[in-house]
Each structure stands twice: as C-alpha cells, then as structure tokens.
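User: structure tokens for this one?
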Amino acid sequence: MLIVAASVAVMGLLALFLIRPQVSPNLVSISGEVTAVRTAKGVTFISFVPNDFIVVSFNELSFEPMNHTLHGRLQEYKGKVEFVVESYD
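Assistant:
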C-alpha cells in the first residue's frame, strides 16, 4: 500500500510539473482594444480585448481607451499568465 501511495504521489508531482503554462522570456506584441485602465500602488491594470489574460504595466505609461499594439513579455504570477507591457503603439 505504501509503494502504491508513493508511486501515485510521484506521478502527481510529475504531472503538475509538466502541465505548467509555458511563459516566454521573448518580447511579444499583441493588438486589441484597451477598454479600461486603473492604477493601484504603482501598477497599471489594463482591460484588454480580445485576450484572456491579465495585462499590467509597471512603467508610467498612459493609455487611452482605443486600439493599441502592446509590446511586452509573458510571465507567470500566482499561477496565472499575465502580459507585462513595456511599450505600446
């Protein structure tokens, strides 16, 4: 019984390790519409359509609600993938 439990635990840990989202350190560009912007504690949170992940900026960038092309990097934060904006067009 102990061997079976240990085997299941090891397989579960391997599965968790293998199904983690892949986060790219490369610069990525996404296009869409900025629908809302809010700032809290030096971080700008951006509501961005059509993408389904969190978009944040740590730089002091000002965004107008309109279509933009955002340039930045994907990173994992608290188990979720977020897009960190470095610049925009």
